Amino acid sequence: MKPSNSLENFDYRVACDDFFLYELGRLIEEDHASLEDEEFRRLIDAGIHEHIERPLEIRAEVAARLRKSSRASGRVLHVVEDIEAPLRDEPIIIESYTAYLVRRLEECAEQKPDERIEAAADLLLESPEDRSSAETALHTLASIRSAASARVLAFIISEPMLEEDLEARAYAHVREMWPLPRPYIFYSLKPHTHEDIPFRWFQLLVDCEEPSAVDRVLEEVLAHGNQPNYREDLLALVELLGEARDPATEEKVLQVLNSEDTPEGAKQILEGFLKNTRTQSHKDAKAADPWTNLDRLYAANKKYLAAVKLFESGRTADASRKLDELLRDQPQYPFALVLKQLI
Predict the structure, then answer these.
(1) H or E stretch covering 138
(2) Cα(150)–Cα(156) distance, rounded to whole angstroms?
(3) Burial letters for 108-146: b for 16+ Cβ neighbours within 10 Å, e otherwise?
(4) Which terminus of the chain, N or C, has less C-beta within 10 A?
(5) What pLDDT, in 10s, does the model give residues 74-101?
């Protein structure tokens, strides 16, 4: 008899309009619902990243469930609690999350899709040249703040189908909805199968201060740097690096440039960027910018992991003091709050 999963029936709190449920439904219809299927596994991996690795509250709840389970592996628990460690190769996570997504898809099947979003999408896709219809559709989509409407708008700005001012309006709407379109955009960009680079998406990542925006731009340069038909797009794309507020922009560019694995065409593009563009100094960086926040989260996690070692060695009083120090700096740090309840 197969032992039960410690995370069985765990609620990963995925909304019914979530992109990954939409994609899961498509893959099931196309008979690709198997972990042996490359596209299905890519969906599960990306979903684990979006729904478990990134939201610390969920990750901390997973850790709490594992701590309370006599069947849980200590190694898996330690991986979950280290926020810099990926979870996409952990069988217990894959099994639990995949079963949850299928179950959630069945639950959400009872909910009817928003007909206003479907009608607006049809208007834009069937008659993008009809200005009056396009304006009506954009207004409708902008008035419905949901992952579904954000996906439609994100798709619209990725294709040159609207008049310039309407495209700018659609872009503004997508930006206002950030981060709702983020999962769809990242999942679509990952395979690098696009015929044209969707410049507006990368502009959105930079404008919305997505922490990995610079990394995503450099990925495109590496993927297509030696393909002449992408050169013009890439030259426009790397100009965005000069606008990025990531304090490590220049360091990341130099790291790629100095790598032996970087294609010659990509090196030429990046050399031209460094020669002709001046990156921002970031001396006026905000205390709450996403890169500073990430650094604080990583630092807090290291303090938490030190407290865990004390707790697991039986030094509960020392562990409690470490957690108190951490919570004074980060009162809502979810891992510390969970472990504190066990001491």
Answers:
(1) helix 131-143
(2) 10
(3) beeeeeeeebeebbebbeeebeeeebbeebbebbbebeb
(4) N
(5) 899 999 999 999 999 999 999 999 999 9
